Amino acid sequence: MRHCVHILLALFLALPLGVSAAEDEAAPPQESASAQEAAVPEEDAAPKHYLSVTLDAPDEAQGVLKEHLRLLKKNQQEVPEDEMARAGVQQRARREAQELLRTEGFFAPEIGFETPQEDQWVMHVKAGERVKIAHVEIHFAGALAGADEALAARRARLEKGWLLPVGEPFRQSDWDGAKQNLLDDVASEDFAAAKIADSKALIDTERGEARLSVTVDSGPPFKLGELQVSGIERLPHDLVERYNPLRVGEPFALARLLEFQSALQNTPYFRSVIVDVERDPLLAAAVPVRVQVVEANSRRLSAGLGFTTNTGLRFEANWQDVNLRRRAWELATGLRVEQKEQAFYGDILLPPRKGSQYRDSFGALIKKSDISGLQLNSQALGVTRARARGHISTALSLRWQHETTRTDTQHRDIRALSLDYGWKWGRVDNVMDPRQGLLASFNVGGGLRALLSDQNFLRTSGRLVWYQPVGERDTLILRGELGRTWAKSREGIPQNFLFRTGGTQTVRGYDYESLGVYEDGATLGGRYMAVGSAEYVHWLDAKWGIAGFVDAGNATDSLDDFDLRLGYGIGGRWRSPAGPLALDVAYGQHDKRVRVHFGIAVAF
Questions:
Q1: Are strands 120-126 and 52-56 parallel, antiparallel or unpaired?
Q2: Which residues contact 407 (CB under 8 A, 6 or more apart)?
């Protein structure tokens, strides 16, 4: 009987559930409470209130707090709902601010909040006194700790170069930077595996003092081993070795590796280069030098349009193949067509031989011009040995040329075999747009009648340009140039071994190469030349500037006939991506004429 009651009770309890299920299938679905709340229109929802926090702190503390404190960085911080939530937000901000201020050397700040309104807070910060360095100890371990005099001298230099001396304020970033700088100095020479073995910064908040201690373990001295080159696919596999200045067994020096890397990067063969060693103490006796390269495109076609008041409109096309015959020979050939001058050239540059810093090249040039009444046609063949090392570059060339010149009534054929030497030195702050520095060059070359030349001659010339900054933006540019051809007369000497001047970048206010020996309706080259220039550039902003200048110079065939031609004027300057462009208006005092000088080029 008891079991029957249980069964009936179970059926009775199950019956409403079954009915409910059936009713749910037939009735429309009912929304949950949360869904009903979401369905309330936005205009009926309670508006949110956001917190506005103002920082009241000394200048030396504001920077780090404004940059990193989350309470100040949040764009939308909702107002805490009650007193407990508000206290929690303030406590978290107070702890975070204390940690941030510690990194700036403030270890006992006082931080409080003022809440004039529920949604407007003021955070008051009294940073207190900044901790200062009271004591510094630098220790060395490893091979650098040896008793050798050279090692002792190096340790003394390292200690002298420490960046956080006694008396300086303590800041975490300065402390980290000083340690890293010390480590870099040790690891840059001999000790590639150097590391910070221990470092401590003990802070005495009562005295406001910091006592610093750092230990650098140099590890063993490293010697360089063989090259390990990766990334060479199309180029000759010995190409990297040809540029290698390193010797097996020489001490490790980061500067030497970077010099090697720069030499490779400056070639047209590679898009990127990384030269490094594995800093494993077990490899110190002969650590391999790893060279990772990414090859550049071997062939390139480029073209451009340009204009200059010297030679008029210009079209130029160039073809380059840096892996000719898969031997890393660099072919450079091009055609330049200007209104007053046209040229076609082809040069082949060979990679340096192993262990040599010289690059040999050979090429040909065909040139035609009609400038200042002188029609000139020339053909030349030449070989050159060039070298670039540091700030100095040199070139030694042997060149044979045939030249034809025409004036109104005269026609000349000239042949010369010349040996030429060029030297250049430069140290400027910006190669594309120099503002400070010095550029110098010198050239000497000549030929002999006994060696396939129509005349004995020797040409010498030199040029000096000085850039001097004035104030925050302005620049003073001084330029001087002298030249002389040593010969009994100018007859039988090619025009490129004589001198003409005038025009942009020489003596403004006069036509291009119009200053020289005037004869038979044309300006010919003379045996003497002198040019000087002073220019002041005032930059109005980062891109635009104005300039005032005075140029003087001439070229003649006799010192007795030398008479300086003066030109002066003003101009505009624009810093383009290719360097400053100049538009100058100059007055030539001798000709009593105003001329415009301008140049622009666009590559495509």
A1: parallel
A2: 373, 374, 375, 519, 520, 521, 522, 524
What b/e string do you get for 28-50 counting C-beta neighbours within 10 Å, with b at 16 or more?
A: eeeeeeeeeeeeeeeeeeeeeee
With a cut of 70, say whether residue 45 has pLDDT above it: no
Q: State residue 47's pLDDT score.
A: 59
Cα 258 to its chain centre, rounded Å, is 15
CATH 2.40.160.50, the chain: domain bounds: 299-603
CATH topology of domain 299-603: Porin (2.40.160)
Q: What are phi and psi of 286, to 5 degrees?
A: -160, 75
Which residues in the chain are classed under CATH 3.10.20.310? 52-126, 132-217, 224-295
What end-to-end distance do the CA atoms of the chain give, in Å? 105
CB atoms closer than 10 angstroms to residue 288: 13
Return the CATH number of the domain spanning residue range 52-126: 3.10.20.310
Q: Which CATH architecture has domain 132-217?
A: Roll (3.10)
**Residue 41: pLDDT band by 50, 70, 90 thresholds?**
very low
Q: Which residue has the higher pLDDT, 22 or 128?
A: 128
Q: What is the mean pLDDT of residues 469-494?
A: 96
Domain 224-295 indexed as CATH 3.40.50.80: no
- In percent, how much of the chain has pLDDT > 70? 91
The Cα angle at residue 370 between residues 364 and 374, in degrees rounded to 5 = 105
Q: What dihedral angle (degrees, nearest 10) is formed by the CA atoms of 139, 145, 148, 149?
A: -20
Q: Tell me the mean pLDDT in the region 430-455.
A: 95
Q: Do 420 and 399 meet the contact criterion of CB atoms below 8 Å apart? A: yes
pLDDT at 27 over 80: no
Q: Residue 115: CB partners within 8 Å, gap ≥ 6?
A: 86, 121, 122
pTM, to two decimals = 0.74
With CA atoms as reference, report the closest residue to 309 among 465, 513, 480.
513
Q: Taking 70 as the threshold, does the pLDDT of residue 280 lie above it?
A: yes
